[in-house]
Amino acid sequence: MNPQFLMDGLIAGAMIGLGAIGVTLTYSILRFANFAHGELLSWGAYLALAVTSGLGLLSTTLTKPLGPFSFGWSLPLSATLAIILTGALALAIDAILFGRLRARGSAVIILVMASFGASLALRSLLEFIFTSKPAYYTKALQIAVPIAGGLRATPDQLLSLGISLVAVIAIHLLMTRTDIGRSMRAVSENPALSGIAGVDVRRVILVVWFVGAALACIAGIMTGLLVQIRPYLGHDLLLALFAAAILGGIGSVPGAMLAGLIVGLSEAAAVQLVGAEWRAAVSFVILVAVLLLRPRGLFGRMA
Amino acid sequence: MTAPALRTQALVAGYEPDLPIVRGVDISVAPGELLVLLGPNGAGKSTFVKAIAGVVPVHSGVIFLGERDITRIATHRKISQGLAFVPQTENIFATLTIHENLQLAAAVLPKHIRADKIAALYRRFPDLATKSSRLAGTLSGGQRQMLAVARALIVDPPVLILDEPSAGLSPKIVAEVFAMLKEINASGVTVVLVEQNVKAALAIASRAVILVEGMIRHEGEASSLLGDPLIARLYLGTSQPHEVSQP
pTM of the prediction? Predict the structure, then answer.
């Protein structure tokens, strides 16, 4: 078995982990499985593409590759703006759809079905605007360099791993060391008591949408940078995102990232062991196995 | 004339709009008073205090905290207005540590006084100080009540409402909880207490209100209720008048 699967799995797992953090936060605090979360990855990737293309038209200097990387300043700049725009998109979806359903006291199944509808609409809109033709942030080719133990990775891939690590540490610190993080954990456990204790539950919900969307945007941009940008980019990752969120334990940020890496590594191993056509089945097997054997996942609390 | 610390006028409340559980309740609690709400199961006691706290919808009527109308104030703003509520169950955040529970509650205060407030609570409840890094879910029933009350007291509320704080506790712990409530009341906090433990509650209360089917059936001095055999038999589930005993 080629050890390169470890690097491939870690890189794929980091993207899955970042997306799964958003899923797990939304699930634990808003209490429904948001099937539109994958579209936030796609929208994040495309928003960054739109901005970086615009910046490229303004100045070619901004597209000149930075050091060993395949992209110029236009990508980090556009990523920053795309994170804000994806967060704003999530808040708009909540204001137009989910917030209204919550206000009516709609059942969870209604919210889940609404998320299916939102997913379809967002994906179709993306296809309408950008077409289904794959796009790229850069055409520059990168050569994978030897790392250690026979493993190879491109500078973009290593940067993506580093960004994932920084993002997960930042979110973990946010959740454990700040007022808003404690409020998020409190609302996740008991929304009614949170209100009594002085927590503005509505504000917490908005923050959760924004944080989840921001992470989805980062994951989407990473996927777009390392693979390609397609309207189905997020949708194709959805099963893996849910498998990781449930394996990590709903509500656990480190759990979601660790589980994302496990799912990514399992998929990469499966490609070598049983063939690439079985890759998607790995997430499904993990999802079903966790639900049957340990529904609270690795770090989730007992119901 | 001093305004009541807490007052409700014709309060109608319940979970469903067309199914009121509390049906036109007027109470007036004087500053520094310890009022106990009694009544049989299903009388609407818990719904009444939850409606005051903002957890159950108010259909009509008015709630005054001091002279402020707080009827339509959002639940999370009531604590900073000076109304603290301790629910009967799930009244702490089990997955947060004791310290995080207090930090969460202190977040409504200005940043520069939070640490002092938490330190003051640790002095008042030294048991919590020694276990501050423990997950609240690992605490015993009595310790949980202590933490729930400490969380509520962090803003120095003029009014503290508790929903059956003795539920599920051993008699020894119940005595400790009631002694704590009496001490809190003696420090100047107006206390409204919903209780099934009639004897212990009347022993520390200055006045009692008896609710039946969502309406007030009787109210009076706690000591007089304890000695009234008719009240005891009809509303308090006992056939003999209670003896007053101090916890």
Answer: 0.89
